[in-house]
Amino acid sequence: QKEVEQDPGPLSVPEGAIVSLNCTYSNSAFQYFMWYRQYSRKGPELLMYTYSSGNKEDGRFTAQVDKSSKYISLFIRDSQPSDSATYLCAMSPDLGFQKLVFGTGTRLLVSP
Amino acid sequence: KAGVTQTPRYLIKTRGQQVTLSCSPISGHRSVSWYQQTPGQGLQFLFEYFSETQRNKGNFPGRFSGRQFSNSRSEMNVSTLELGDSALYLCASSIHQDTQYFGPGTRLTVL
Question: CA–CA separation, A21 vs A18, rounded Å?
């Protein structure tokens, strides 16, 4: 079993829908949680990161962490065709990249 | 500011050959990390260089090596290529330990 599990999708939604992307993990030591967006033929781009539990909002994006359930979510409100990409979750027990564990990504398709 | 650049973007090699990939970080960034991305395993950390020194290393065999130059540019080398080395190799640069900026990657195909 992988430390971080993420449904590969694709997840297809119409424009304007609320999108929910999720990851589960098994390592209770994870404290830093990140969401990256990766467009085709591009490198990942950091969208948000949160420390420990709770919510964080940035424009149309909201990240939630539930450490008791070992479950994190990224919500996208009013989804746009430009949101079509692969979304990667990543997590680490501390700052620093060598312990960062990535999910394999969920492909999102937003149709006009 | 220019982003992270990687060259070449695409590469085809045969088993047993070696390959060198190049990464130019964002100006002022002294930390460069390398990752391997495959559909099955996702992104996996290879190593990180800071001020020409390897600061951290992932769980990859010794065939994977890297170096960093005084201008922070970095190279990654893979010797004795295997079919399983086919992947997207990503380089990322950073100033702080919480945010890294990725390049577009080098797509390596081993035949």
Answer: 10
- Confirm or reject contact between B97 and chain A (CB < 8 A): yes
Q: Measured at the alpha carbon of residue B90, what is the angle toward residues B84 and B95, in degrees to the nearest 5? A: 145
Listed residue (B61, B30, B76, B56) closest to A96, CA to CA: B56
- Please state, as a whole number, how many other Cβ atoms lie within 10 Å of the Cβ of residue B84: 8
Q: Which of A73, A110, A103 is nearest to A88 (CA)?
A: A103
Pairing, β A106-111 against β A11-14? parallel
Q: Which residues of A touch B58 (CB under 8 A)?
A: 98
Scan for tokens 């990535």, then name that residue. Answer: A102
Tell me the per-residue pLDDT of A74-85, one tens digit each, with 9 for 90 and over: 999 999 999 999
User: pLDDT tens digit string along B43-79?
Assistant: 999 999 999 999 999 999 999 999 999 999 999 999 9
Please report residues of A whose CB lies closer than 8 A to that of B57. 98
